[in-house]
Design goal:
CATH topology of the largest domain: Heat Shock Protein 90
Radius of gyration: 28 Å
CATH class of the largest domain: Alpha Beta
Strand order of the largest sheet: 3-4-6-5
Strand content: 5-15%
Low-confidence stretches: none
Structural class: alpha+beta
CATH architecture of the largest domain: 2-Layer Sandwich
Number of domains: 3
Largest sheet: 4 strands, antiparallel
Distance between the termini: 57 Å
Number of strands: 6
Mean pLDDT: 82
Length: 370
């Protein structure tokens, strides 16, 4: 049975005053997002909204198209099909954006099912090898890792969003003060923009870290792989701190080239950034050596260095000592080298003297990545 609030909302959606209808659409949008699954009045509210897709005012029709981008209710599919042919360009654009967003939801749902199937296949394989107890132990461990990652990500997001919210509140308050100059307001907006960029960088880092890439392994000249990573870093404008050639005799290793390049790029960028504030920086030394069935890559900088404690934490997710760091660079490099390639990545550093990152890759793969 509809409550008085719901009945008032339904009546407002049928109002003659189109501005009142717009306000009612906002109320209905919020109500739908907060409604419990199986709420009896959902269909009634949705049907009232669907009818508004033919409203005489384009503002109302656009509001309905925008609302469709925030709900996956099937009744809005024909609404969007109608709105993308609307006479008003703004309505058509809103409908196109909504359709794209709903398609992304569907793709994400399909990806989620594929991901679950992949996990189940892995657990089935573990059960075949180690029995039911092995399967359950791995499942518990993976769930604990996922819980830890989710908690850490939540705290990191809160830490990043808090200053954005504070800056936005400050800007809103200053907008009502006629004595504040426009430049000061623009500066506030710039600060918010920089923090949003940092937040996006963290999210991009998370996506890169959690991605499950298709690994294509081939025998590669490691010296050429290192040179490719150096070229990418040079494009950032930091090339003056890099050697023009890679030292050592090099060697060949069976690797996924693009992933190793990504790992090396992260390591090299960290090396470059260690020189921030140093007046007379020395070049970063990179050497490649092959022996005893493995190829080693050593990246040595003479920058700020790290204490022993900081060096230990450098490979931990979300840990960073840089003002605009994301905490994903070295963890991703470690994941690529150790988990995907069965190699090793180690860090030796001394505060004030510099850092050495040593990567060891097996020349031949002995089986599936660990």
């Amino acid at each position: 049975m509809a409550t008085n609030t719901q009945r008032a909302m339904l009546d407002a959606l049928r109002a003659e005053d189109w501005s009142a209808v717009l306000r009612a659409i906002e109320d209905a949008d919020l109500w739908l997002r907060q409604a419990d699954p199986g709420e009896s009045q959902v269909d009634s509210v949705v049907q009232s909204l669907v009818l508004l897709a033919e409203h005489r005012k384009w503002e109302v029709r656009r509001a309905i198209a925008n609302l469709a981008s925030r709900t996956n209710h099937a009744s809005f599919e024909p609404v969007l099909a109608r709105c993308v042919r609307d006479d008003n360009a703004l309505v058509r654009e809103a409908a196109r954006r909504a359709a794209l967003r709903r398609r992304d939801w569907q793709n994400a749902s399909a990806f989620g099912k594929q991901h679950q199937e992949r996990i189940n296949a892995t657990l089935d394989d573990i059960q075949t090898r180690f029995g039911v107890r092995g399967r359950e132990a791995v499942k518990r461990a993976s769930e604990q890792i996922a819980d830890t990652f989710a908690r850490e990500l939540y705290h990191e997001m809160i830490k990043l969003l808090a200053p954005v919210a504070t800056s936005a509140e400050r800007l809103a308050a200053r907008l009502t003060d006629p004595s504040i100059e426009r430049k000061a307001l623009a500066d506030d907006a710039t600060v918010i923009g920089r923090r949003v960029v940092h937040l996006k960088a963290v999210l991009d880092g998370m996506r890169a870290y959690t991605a499950v890439p298709r690994l294509a392994f081939a025998a590669e000249d490691v010296t050429e792989v290192v040179s490719e990573a150096l070229s990418i870093v040079r494009e950032t404008g930091a090339g003056s701190l890099l050697p023009t050639t890679v030292l050592g005799e090099g060697g060949s290793a069976e690797v996924c080239r693009s992933r190793v390049v990504q790992a090396l790029t992260n390591v090299l960028r960290n090396a470059i950034e260690s020189y921030d504030g140093i007046a007379d920086p020395r070049v970063v030394r990179v050497s490649v050596d092959s022996r005893n069935g493995s190829v080693s890559i050593m990246v040595e900088d003479f920058g700020c260095g790290m204490s022993e404690e900081v060096a230990v934490d450098a490979g931990v997710l979300f840990t960073t000592s840089k003002p605009n760091g994301t905490g994903f660079g070295l963890p991703l490099a470690t994941k690529i080298i150790e988990t995907e390639h069965g190699g090793r990545l180690s860090i030796t550093s001394r505060k004030g003297d510099g850092t050495v990152v040593r990567i060891v890759l097996p020349t031949h793969r002995s089986g599936e990545p660990r």
